[in-house]
Amino acid sequence: MNEILTITNLSKKYKGNDKYSVKDLSFEVKEGELFAFLGPNGAGKSTTIKCITGALPYSEGNIKICGHDLHESPIDAKKNIGYVPDNHFTYDTMTGYEYINFMSDIYGVGVNDRKTRGDKYVELFGLTDAIGKPIGSYSHGMKQKICVIGALIHNPKLWILDEPLTGLDPQSAYNLKELMKEHCKEGNSVLFSSHIIEVVEKLCDRLAIIDKGSLLISGSMEEIRAKNVDNSLEEFFLSVTQGDVLVGDEKEEFKF
Amino acid sequence: MTAFFALTKQLIKNTLIPNFKDAKEKKKFIGMVVTIVICLGIPYIAMLVGIFGLVKASVELGYIAHILSIGFFASQLLTFFFGLFAYINIMYFSKDNEFLFTLPLKSVSIFWAKFISILLYELIFSVATVIPVCIVALIAMATLGSFSAGILIMMIPATILLPLMAILVIALLSFPIMKVLQFFKKRPIFGAVVTILLVAAIYIAIYVPIIINTPDAGSSDIASGAVEEVDEGFSMSDIYSALLPSIAPIGKYFYHTFLLASSMTVGGVKAFGYGMAFIGIVALLAGLGTLLAMWQFKRISQGVYENNGAMASSKKQGEVKQTSLKKALIKKEFSSVLKSSNLLIQCGMMVVLPPILIFLLGMYQVKLTNSFVALAVAELIIKLMTSSNTISLLAVSRDGEGALMAKTMPISANQIIWSKIFVGFVFSAITVVLSTIAFSFVGGVNVLQVLGFFLSNMLYAWAVNRFCVYRDLKKPKVHWKNIEEIIKNNFSSVIPMFIAFIPGLLVMAPTMAYGIALTLNPYVIGAIYLATTLLVSGVYYLIISGITKGSVEDYWQRIE
């Protein structure tokens, strides 16, 4: 299988911070693979994803998307990505329909393709009645859905989702998971971040567990299970992240 | 449609077309715009009719290029003043940057798409100033039997190129400003202070050459002398003829606008040369802007939202102290202001710019006329500036969804709102104190002028902050993720500033009239001024108190 995403020794330190948010991270996502990025809050999942998508700069390491180096040919690399951010940014003044058209224009999607794909996803996510209304009037979940449609309109080779299931109703969450699987079956790849272990366990082909910016373990579900015969993935996750799931490195000391 | 055009189209739409929730809101907005256009349009047309005589006299005396140059430069200053922070907010603090950098677009394309949307927005000032001034010049020349094809040919290019040049200058200045802000990212107060000083230095750099190059009228008072001459049977054109040799030469010191104005008025090959020279300057700035944008725009923009990550992860040891509710609320208000560089800069500008403008313009006015004219201008400046206090204009909105949390606390809304008015007033009061000190140094000022200015504007400052806080309380925008969103999209200053024209002009007009037309003892005029300004501020205070009385709890409960 070809590698769709290759990350080699990626390190990221935020300006003004002494500590690395991501340190020496290496992994790859192969063609047709549904890859999960698992970690506690503040582990560095979103930072890594933002580096991959070009939202954040990085000074150490390499990121290659479909063979294009993100530093050397960012436009070619980004053309292969569809990104659903955790904050579901869209322009509130646009209608859902305008947003789909805007994203199609940005990625150079033809009229027929944008109509076929747009109609399919709008119907799938039950946005038919809302598609002509300004996105500003959408609920949290509806904004998430329109972001998903915008990210898929150019049928990207690599679909990246940051905490995709947060705020979705059960039916939409199910539809999204099915869509992720379908996208991979078509020969594309999906990379998503989550801290919901059950979702990761049921959905992904391979996963990486990250904590405090460093990769703890990566491999297929079978490989992880083989290493962890006696425990569930949840127990394994808690053991590798030393039970520090909730607070991570964000502890605050108070003097009384 | 190419990606660049799709993005530009969308950004233009975002910048120029307001987003209405419903037809009622749209109607209300249109009604407000029409009212403002009518209210400002009538005095503006009257002013254009007034300057017609001045332009005509300048054609006769050979100063038309100088006068046009002053008009064009004034238009650029307007674009500069109103555009600087709008530019920084849209270019660097926009929440869409993080999204746009993930799209397959070059950072230079994003830069120019944003730049074009800002330019179109700023064209409003240019259309409202450059075109009317050109038309007035054309008519003035026509009445004297001459016709200038240059004005006709260059009018539209000038309307576009003048704000373009101003925004290019802003673009170039924004790079060091943003660098300063990022350098002091963990100390927003230092960052804001350095930025304010930088902008203040720019203002001083613009005004000082104007003042230095203004011929001193000495003890003889040009304007009042001319008015006295009117009584003896002279016409307005004689006043203009008396004023022009003093004012017009300043136009030559604005080299770039003088080139443009000359291209409109001299005719022939020379006009073409001047026009090309002006276009060359703009092209040079555009080239420089592109180079800097390619090098720095993405880096700075990404640095802005990267800083949020850096700030969020910084560890701070908390110290717990007990304090009274009133102090706690005031402390919380100060803390929320001092932690946002952008809010701090806007508020700092309100504090620092009025004294600078009052001093510099005051010096200029005193050179040309006398301290009462300077005082009249100072009154308008301080009233307009204290009405644009972002701290009070966003008093509730800047709490975000914290305002909803505050509703669940056992605190009276009156206490919360009082603390907000108080903190807004503190910043306005600093403005008034500094402006009073600045005014007292312009020369020829007496104690009654200083006392009247200080007392009336302190009263006005309390009232206007109360008004601004109540306006925000009525319709706060509490659902935001980043405070820059509400600062960037803040048009709430329009109404208080527009209303501020009323007390401003009510004090300005008689003060200017006393200064120009009366020949009484300066202390007698000072006493009349003191009574007038206190009366206006007092009435304003009573009206605002009446409007806002007893509605706090109601409005507070309606926040959702």
Can you tell me about this structure?
- The complex is a heterodimer of chains A (256) and B (560).
- With 256 residues, chain A is α/β, with parallel strands linked by helices.
- Chain A has nine helices and eleven strands.
- Chain A folds into two domains: 1-80 and 156-256, Rossmann fold (3-Layer(aba) Sandwich), CATH 3.40.50.300; 88-155, no CATH class.
- The longest helix of chain A has 16 residues, at 170-185.
- The radius of gyration of chain A is 19 Å and the shape is globular.
- With 560 residues, chain B is mostly helical.
- Chain B has helices at residues 3-16, 23-61, 64-93, 97-100, 107-143, 149-183, 188-213, 222-231, 236-247, 250-253, 255-265, 268-312, 325-338, 341-368, 371-386, 390-393, 402-407, 413-440, 447-474, 483-488, 494-517, 522-548, 552-558; one strand at 318-319.
- In chain B, helix 2 (23-61) packs across helix 5 (107-143), helix 3 runs antiparallel to helix 5 (107-143) and helix 5 (107-143) runs antiparallel to helix 6 (149-183).
- The radius of gyration of chain B is 25 Å and the shape is globular.
- Chain A binds chain B through residues 14-17, 19, 21, 42, 47, 50, 53-57, 74-76, 78-79, 81, 83, 85, 87, 89, 91-94, 102, 105-108, 134, 136-137, 249-250, 252-256, and chain B through 1-3, 5-7, 10, 13-14, 17, 19, 21, 95-96, 98-99, 101-106, 182, 185-186, 298-299, 302-303, 305-307, 309-311, 313-320, 481.
- Strand 11 of chain A pairs parallel with strand 1 of chain B, so a sheet runs across the interface.
